[in-house]
Design a protein that fits this description.
The protein is an all-alpha fold and 281 residues long. It has a domain of 186 residues. The chain is 73% helix and 0% strand. Helix 3 packs across helix 10. The protein is globular. The two termini are 25 Å apart.
Length: 281
């Protein structure tokens, strides 16, 4: 049956109406993605259990061989790094979801529908945030089981989790851009890259004993700023090194992490929306 194109809704005229249109259509895409995940419980289980396995692996298997700066429990030092790794992994999961939809022609069908163009990408990243929050909650539960807990009060702890969610959202837009650019089989080969990105940081080990080049790269890695910010917010400033030799992002980690998130969002949102529109021409 042919569609009467004269009865398709026209795009809203005002900015406020366009924002509401984008949010409404984006929420529809979020629900669609979550419905797909519910039909694949194994994928949800893997996404939620992977952080828990990392807590056990690093906390008990490797933790006994690693010294914490100034002494102390390695698992308290470790948990902010694992939270940051979970935030970074959001880019990988979004990349795979977008690449899969792109390869199966789902994106072309979205483009043919009378919906806000940016809503498709807003929905993809929104679904990832919901899954990411669930993964962090699972990790919090396992963290308490192994002896971790925030010691700097509930307010800073909430701020730390807010920063992690914001950073994951920014990184997921980077995954969206990669998913729109790469074929699914190529994107699949990039999954292991999340480990070098997080390993070359202060997430799991102190950087002061690294070779000079690696130490410089690790200290300027945005992940290191995010991890240091979380350690500061979870455990207080006393747990964060105050050496004058530290680069500026590690001296002001919360501000640096916020700045990184804003910059990444500005760049990746713009490029992703532009790429999505250009692919439909």
């Amino acid at each position: 049956m042919m569609t009467d194109l004269t009865h398709l809704p026209t795009p809203p005229a005002t900015t406020a109406e366009r924002i509401r249109w984008t949010i409404a259509d984006g929420w529809t895409v979020v629900r669609r993605n979550l419905d797909h995940l519910r039909a694949q419980p194994g994928e949800i289980a893997a996404e939620l259990m992977f952080p828990a396995l990392m807590v056990v692996l690093f906390g008990y298997v490797l933790g006994s061989a690693i010294r914490v700066p100034g002494g102390g429990n390695y698992r308290l030092y470790l948990m902010p790094g694992l939270f940051a790794m979970t935030a970074i992994s959001g880019g990988i999961s979004t990349m795979m979801s977008v690449a899969s939809d792109q390869g199966r022609g789902v994106m072309d069908r979205f483009r043919s529908m009378p919906m806000a163009r940016s809503a498709v990408l807003v929905g993809q990243t929104g679904a990832d945030i919901i899954l990411g929050v669930l993964a962090m909650l699972v990790m919090v539960g396992f963290g308490y089981l192994v002896g971790w807990h925030p010691t700097n009060g509930p307010g800073p702890a909430v701020a730390a989790f807010g920063l992690l969610v914001l950073f994951r959202y920014a990184v997921s837009w980077g995954g969206t851009l990669l998913g729109l650019t790469l074929k699914e089989e190529t994107a699949d080969k990039l999954i292991p890259l999340v480990f070098p990105i997080t390993m070359l940081s202060n997430a799991f080990v102190p950087t002061e004993n690294m070779p000079t080049l690696l130490r410089v790269l690790a200290n300027w890695n945005p992940v290191s700023a995010l991890v240091t910010a979380c350690r500061q917010l979870f455990m207080g400033t006393a747990s964060v090194p105050t050496s004058g030799s530290l680069p500026l992002p590690l001296q002001h980690p919360v501000a640096a992490s916020l700045l990184w998130a804003v910059v990444l969002l500005a760049v990746f949102v713009t490029l992703s929306v532009r790429r999505f529109k250009a692919a439909g021409r």
